[in-house]
Amino acid sequence: MVTDTHTVALIVAAGKGERAGGDVPKQFQLLGGLPLVEHARRALAGHPRIDRVITVVSEGAAVAGETAIGGATRRESVRNGLEAIGDAARVLIHDAARPIVPAAVVDRLLAALDDAPGAVPVLPVADTLAANGEALGDIVDRSSLARVQTPQAFAFAAILAAHRAWPASEEATDDAQILRRAGYRVATVAGDPLLDKITYPGDLALAEARLGATMRVRTAMGFDVHRLVAGEQLWLGGVLIPHDKGLSGHSDADVALHAITDAVLGTIAAGDIGTHFPPSDPRWRGAESGQFLRHAASLVAAQGGVIDFVDLTIICEAPKVGPWRAPIRDRVAALLGLAPTQISVKATTTERLGFTGRGEGIAAQAVVTVRA
Ligand code: MG
């Protein structure tokens, strides 16, 4: 008896996935900086009607969130995952190789479960279908055929019973087949080309382009000023620059890293550097500012964001920034785990006007672009 009203999503990620190429099983290959399985997990976990997500993996695989250990075949892996759920009203079973999961498809599947114990997303077959051997054979009528995708949605009790009744000696293509064999009806809803499976080399590049189209891009800026004084070291963009003065502040006063950190935090509306590292906290006295930037970047990553580009402008009369441009670029890239080509370092004077022109301080501004 179902005592639970919960909807659980089960992601199958225990396969070897060799057809997509590469040394890593395809569900762990990176798409926009994240493993395929993590894209699927975040999409399902983020759906308002899904209460719990369990990823079925091989022993020793490191994935985020709740996991169950898979079996020798896809069918056995799903069975293990279903047994691990315990109790639920509905379950969505999804392949990790389909990283983009439009919320509208999940909505349609769950609505269809009100009238049927199973529901699958399908797409029409657009290409001509024909038998193919040594030479082209007969055309197959495609009007009566459909491409079946995942996630597939089921009444939990029905799919669990159907899996338990399936003969151990036989394999199944998908879970809808297993439910139908048990005598249940499987409804169809409109699928989505975004759900297409990553199968062959080249599919990943296509998914990357599709993902780019579905991603939000956020841009934020940061600005900072520190006073130049005698007797301090000059840290600029994570690089120690020989100069007769240095920047003064509570931390190492790296005005460039502070501006970038504020811009990074801005992309997720997470306040500013002072919110996270208050100057009143003695822990940050003389602190190396690279740790502030790394922390801000980790907050972005935790929200599924990927930093795309950093554009930094340093505003001062002296020292001359030009010779330090490449070392600063490389240091910022290293701190963020980005390529140097994703970091732009610019410098300007203010024509001897204002506090920067008089050499009383250095200002920096940064613009950061993040995809999520
Ligand atoms: Mg500062």
SSE map:
Elements: E1 7-13, E2 30-31, E3 34-35, H1 36-45, E4 52-57, E5 66-69, H2 74-85, E6 90-95, H3 103-112, E7 118-124, E8 129-132, E9 136-140, E10 146-148, E11 152-155, H4 156-165, H5 175-181, E12 186-190, H6 203-214, E13 217-230, E14 234-236, E15 239-241, E16 245-248, H7 255-267, H8 273-276, H9 290-302, E17 306-315, H10 325-336, E18 343-348, H11 354-357, E19 361-371
Parallel strand pairs: 1-4, 1-6, 4-5, 7-12, 17-18
Antiparallel strand pairs: 2-3, 6-11, 7-10, 7-11, 8-9, 13-16, 13-19, 14-15, 17-19
The structure holds magnesium ion.
Characterise the protein shown here.
Helix 10 links the parallel strand 17 and strand 18. The protein has two domains: 208 residues, Spore Coat Polysaccharide Biosynthesis Protein SpsA, Chain A (Alpha-Beta Complex); 155 residues, 60s Ribosomal Protein L30, Chain: A. Helix 2 packs across helix 4, helix 4 packs across helix 5 and helix 7 packs parallel to helix 9. By secondary structure, it is of the alpha/beta class. It is built from eleven helices and 19 strands. 40% of the residues are buried. The site of magnesium ion (MG) has 5 residues, from strand 13 and helix 7.
